[in-house]
Amino acid sequence: MAKKEEYTGVIRAFDMRKLDVRLMYYLIYAISLVFLVVCFFPLVWVVLSSFKTLKEFVKETTILPQQYQISSFLETWRSLKFSRYYVNSGISVAGSCICAVLFNGLFGYVLSRMKPAGHKVFEALVMWGLLIPSTMSIVPLFMRIARLHLTGSFVPLWLAMGANAFYVVLFRNFFDSLPNSLIEAAKIDGATDMRVFMQIAVPLSKSVVMVVILYAVTASWSDFLLPFLLLQNTKLETVMVKLFSLMRGAKINDVEMLRSIVFAIIPPIVLFIIFQKQITQVTIQSGIKG
Question: What is residue 278's predicted lDDT score, i.e. its pLDDT?
Answer without folding.
Answer: 67
